[in-house]
Amino acid sequence: MTITVLIADDQAMVRAGFAAVLAAQDGIEVIGQAADGAEAVVLARDLRPDVVVMDVRMPGMNGIEATAALQVPPRSSDYVPKVLMLTTFDIDEYVHAALRAGASGFLLKDALPDEVARAVRVIAAGEALLAPSVTRRLIEEVARQQPAPVVDEHLLASLTAREREVLELVARGRSNQEIAAELFIAEQTVKTHVSKILQKLGLRDRVHAVVFAYDTGLVRPGA
Questions:
Q1: CA distances from 50 to 79, 110, 137 (A)
Q2: What is the Rg, in whole angstroms, of the alpha carbon atoms belonging to the chain?
Q3: Where is the HTH luxR-type domain (predicted)?
Q4: Potential cystine with 163: which of 31, 112, 118, 159 (Cβ 3.0-4.6 Å)?
Q5: Can you tell me the distance from the alpha carbon of 17 to that of 87, in angstroms, rounded to the nearest whole number?
Q6: Which of 51-55, 58-62, 75-79, 86-90 has the lowest mean pLDDT?
C-alpha cells in the first residue's frame, strides 16, 4: 500500500526538499504541504494522510499545538494521523511537550534521504520509535533537567517482572532483536510483551513507553 504524507514547515525550501526526497521513494506519496500548524490541521483532516511530517517551530499555531489538535478528531470522524516531528538538537526542551501532544517520533532536519524515507515507513507501520539513539538521547537530555522522580510502583504494579525488564530495555533504545538476545527469548515473545505493556499502561506506542519509563522513575538518565 502507498503511504501518504503531508509536510508542514514554514520554510518553503525545507518543504520542497522533503517533498522531493519522499516523492522519489517507492510506495510513498506526498499529497500536501502546509506552511503553518493551522493549515496542517485543516489539510490533514481534508486529505487524511497516513503521516504528517511536522516542524516544531512555526508561526501562529506551532507544531506541538497542531499535533495536539490532530489527536482530537472531529465528531464526524475517528481519523488521527501519525505525526513525525522535525527537530534539531538545540530545541531539546520541546521533546516532552511534543510527545505528550501525540508525536510518534522525531526526525532531524539534516537527516539523509534514506533516513527520511525509513522514518516515514516506521511511523506509518506503527512501530513509532525510530532512530532509537536519537529519540532516547533527546528524552534523556530533557529528563536530566527535571527532578529525579521516585519510582511509581502503583503505575508499574500491573506489569509482570519480565514486562518491567522489557520496558526498561525499550526505554534504553533497544530493538526487539536486541532485547530478545539480551533476555534469551524469542523476538516474537518480545513483541508480545511490548504489546501487553502498551495495552496495560494505556500507551500509544514505543515512544510513549520510553517517556513513561523515565516519568515513573523506572529508568534514569545515563544509568
A1: 10, 23, 26
A2: 17
A3: 152-217
A4: 159
A5: 15
A6: 86-90
